[in-house]
Structure formats: C-alpha cells, structure tokens
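--- STAGE predict ---
source: upstream dedup step, 1 unique chain passed
mode: sequence only
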Amino acid sequence: HGTASLEESRKLLSIITNLDFKPADIKHSSLRTMARHVRRAMLPGNHEVFKRSFAEELDGKQVLDFYWTDPIDAMKRSVAKLQYNGKLYTTFKPGTSIFHPDDRAFDLANSGMVFQGACLVDTESSPLLALFYADASFSGQSMSHHPIYMCLLNLHEDERMKPRNWIPVGWIPVYDDSRDDRPGRGYESTAARKVRLYHQCWIEFLDGWAERTKDAMLLPWADGVTRSTRLFLGGVMGDQQEGDKYTGEPCLYHRCYAPRKRYLDTDTDFEVKTMRKVRQRVECAAAGVFMKGNNRTRIVKWDPDGRNVRPGPGAKFYESQRIKAGAHLFFNAFWLIPHFCINLMYMRDTMHQIDSGVIISFLKAILRKFRECVEIPLGITGAAAKKITNRLRRLLGKERTASGHLMYGAHACLVPVNFATTNVFKQLEEKQKAARNTRACDYRHLLLLLPFILSNLFRDEVEEHNSHNQGNPVVDPSEELIGVTNVFLRWYKLFRQTTPGKTGAEINILRSLSDRLLDLFRTVFPYHNKLNRHIMDTEKVHSIRHCHLDVTNYANPINCCCDGPEGGHKTWVHEQGLKTNQGSSSAKTLMTHSLNKEASQLLCDAVRCRVEDGDASAENWTDSRGKALAPDRFWSSGIESEIAGDDEGPCKGIELNIWERAKVRRHIVHTLVGGGGQHRGFDALDY
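--- STAGE serialize ---
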C-alpha cells in the first residue's frame, strides 16, 4: 500500500499479531493514536479530510460545512482490496439465458448498457465504474449532516449487497428550515437554497473529475494484475426526494416530459429527458431567453465551473422562469461529468419506489374502492379495513389440527406474516399513512396475500342488500381488485427476476404489463383527492413505465437496490454514536472515523491474506520473546503445533477490526489482549 509507509506498515503488522503486545513497546500508548498510524500507513497520501463552508452565501445563520475525501482515490483503493479478488467484473460480457441461448440477456452488471457503453469509450482499457448513494433521511432527527456512500459497479452483486463494501466519502450539511429566519420567494426561497447547497457540495466533491479521468491509468486490481483502467461515474442512487435534488426538478419525473396530470396516460410516448436538453432549457431560462419583449434580462449568474451562484437583475422573475424550464435555475454538478446523464442514470431504489411507494398507494386505493362501492351505499364505514385485518390476524391465531397438534396459522402460510403486516389496512384507514414499524418487505408479502384476503370480502352483505333493494343493486368489487392485483404481481415478479436474465422479449412483456397496469389503475380507481388529482396519478406510479430502463442499463434489479448502503449506515454512523451527529465538528469527526475504519479493514485484510497465503517467512513472525510464529497461527490449520494455545490467537476465524475497539476515552492506557477462551474474546481491551 505504498513504499513510503512500508516500514510503518510492518511495525503495525508486528503489533497486531503479537499476543504479548504492551503499550510500552511502541511509541503510542492509546488505540486512538494507533488508529491514526493505521490510517497513515494504509491510506498513503489520502488521509486528508477536505472542508468547504457554504454558510455565508446561502443563509449566513447556519453552519453549513461540507466534508469529503477524494472519490477517485477511494475508487483506486477499492479496486485493489484483496477481499475483492475474483469478485470484480473487468469487461463487458453479454448475458445469456438458458431458455433462450441465442438471445442477449440482462443478468449481471457487466451485461448492461452502462457497462457496455464504458467499454466502448475506451476499448483498450478495463472500465472502473463508481456508484454513489446519498439519502437525507439518514441524517435523522436534529442531525446536521448525511453521508455520501460509494461502491463499485464492477463488484459482483452478492458482494455489493454487503454493507461493509459501501464506504462513506462525504458528509453533506442538512439545511434546517426551522432556522431559516429570512424566508423569501423565488431565488431566495428555502427550496431553491436546498437545491443550490446540494449541487455546490457535489461540485466540490467532483471537482476535477473530467480532467483526471479523461485518460486511462495503470491500476493494480484485487487479483494482483495491473490493468490499463478508465474511470467512470456509473450511476447515483436514492429515493424520490434525492432524485428531485440531483436533477433540480421538484415534483417532476426525471426521465420524460410527462405533465403532472398525465402520469397514467399510456397512449402517448412522452419525450425522453436528457441532460443536454435539460441543461439547454435551464441555461436559456437563467439568461432570460423565455421572457417576452424588453423584459429579457439575466435571472441567475454563475461562473463557468458552476461556482459563485448569484442573482441577476431579473431575479424577481425566478419562479416563473423556473416553471418554464422545469428545473431550478442552478448549475447542475453532473453537467461536467463526461459519459454520464443524471436523468437516465439516476437509479430509483425499488424499496422506496415500489414497496414503500406504489404498493402503499395501491392499498389506499383498494380501501377507497370499497368505500365508494360498498361502505357508503350500505352505511358500514370502515368495514373493509376491519374485515381484511381480521382475515390477516387469523394467520397469527392458534388452531388445532386433525392430529391434535396446536399450530399457529402463520405456520401454514408460505408468506412471512407478523403483527405489523396484519395492521397495515387498519393503520391506513385510521391514520391515512403507513406505520413506521412496517418494513418494505412486509408490503411485498402483503401484496402476495391480497388475492386470497380480498376474495368475496363483502359477498354476504351485498347479497343481503340486493335481495331487499333490487332497484339499486350493489356490486362487490373484490373480483375486480383481485384481477388488478394479479397483473401487479405478474409485473413485479418479472421486474425483480434475477435468474435467468431477462431477454429482449421479456423486457417487451415488462413494458406491456406496465402499460396494462397503469390503465387498470386509471379505470378501476376513477377517484380524485382533495387537490382534484387522480389518487393513483403519482410520480412513483408513473415510474413503472420506465422500469425497463433500469433493466437494460444495469441488468439486475439488485444493482438498483439500496439495502447495502442502508445496512452500511449502521456500521459507519450508528455504531459510531447516533447522537454524535449534532454539529459541524462532529461531521468532521465522523468522516475521520470512517477513514480510520476503512484503514483498519485494509490492514485486517492484509494480515489475513498474508497469513492464509503463508508467504511470510518465519523470522518476520515472532512474538516479543523472539519465538517464531507459524504464518497460519491465528487460523487453525488442522495441523498440531508445538506452540501452546496455537488455536487461540486474536484472529481465530474472525477478521480483526481495530477501530471497533478504539471507541474509548483519551488519556487512558490500554493493553490489547489476544483472543480465545482464556483471553475473554478476540481483540479485547483491558484498562
């Protein structure tokens, strides 16, 4: 990991593999200092945390400090991690299907159009594509920052889903509306300031990207091979709110020009949005081109690199020109990134988009359908939610089988059911919103149960009513709703299909199913909300028409899944102290801690690989008494050793993590004790 720090790295290796380690044996006596040396040794030339303050130009009252590390250097470190050996895609390879061997299939990340396009840019080099993920909801309540996570699209899907492989590379400040004591309109509005802050942070974060990635470079990969490598931005991920910030288009769909009231229209193929078209409209609107007569004047000004954003003479017309442009009149940070289009390469997480979005809207629409068709005519308001809840709770009840055994109903159901799942309809009926303790997977499981739960829900009540009121019959919509649910399930199953890969014919089926589903949403639920909008006419529902683009671009829905970074957030932030993210200084501390964690993981991987490979000579592995240590001492090799306690080293089958044990107060002397039964666990601290 760098010749300049080779000697220091060797010292650290001798410390971490020494059972008799004592603070007096080295120059630092606390693990805090040790972590700093680990970072300098394992991250040579890239242990600096950069800072940029946006307080004065945005608000003047809040501390808006952005902290980040170099993303390109982070990519170089990631591709060389020994743990990724044999787990990286190096070139484009068309996918295949066992059912259609002659057709191209989209199965793995390197079979998608994004990976293929990167290979076509430079056919002599291996592409290295970075994925970034940011979610403002990660900041939590009363928190000051939220992180930017990075991973590689080259990484195999099963590895990219692991939280530890998403590392934080930046901390974006959160703009607090409640502290905005000078609210304004147009250019000075809170919404405009938030978008401006977001893109100014990304401009700093991606500074110099185009110049530094225009040529290929020789990089060592995890398999030990040095390849000619070309760096690309492979995509960014998030939910709907982040999509609005990335594209600068509030409450609009970012992939086409469908108007707000025609999201369920399947008869028209709306014009596709590209970054070039959006940039042209924004720059024209900012220059006042769309204004009539002699009123043409510049609305907003900025420097060629997008910095130093300032209002122009016509700033008072900002809001009207923003509406004409369809986006905020600011320089988008991604305009300077070559071979990238934020409108088409922004990936919507299926958990936020479908599970916690479309499915919830669908469940609300079902309750509305029963209310309009059955509950109001029969005068039994709220009966649908109660009956569905009772049917679901029967799955959690106890029943005696024919053999006399006491069984839970959930045992007879192949779909996982819990108490939160049974209360979904009750919550939606009473609170008009989803409960926080209901997971996204619970909504998926509930969607699978709907055809059985809805069957003949009001058959008895409707038959009794119609027998006495033949002139005004009521129809139970259960069968109609089951039909819509089955189409939804068929579409969702095909969309989430990972193996075998989807062929061109299956993608066409996916598109036709999406159009059919939107048509059913429009006809089966012809109701409007308080704003006189169709209850299913939402941006998330419209995104169903464009889900096939995620398949062709990234091949596998797993590549658009945010489970990895959301799980990693627990490692990088929650474990460092959820309530420490209270100010600007704590953000810098969290960024430093994240670097320390990454460095300790690199050191642990180096130690583990060195031991497992057995390439260390005996004289390099000695304890404090000068006795030789076998290279595989800390992993039981199955061969008896002359050294007592040979199977109780600090690494016994578990990767070391120095920083996990470094959450301690300063000015305390610590001793690092080995693992095993007699040492009370691995990597333990005594103080």
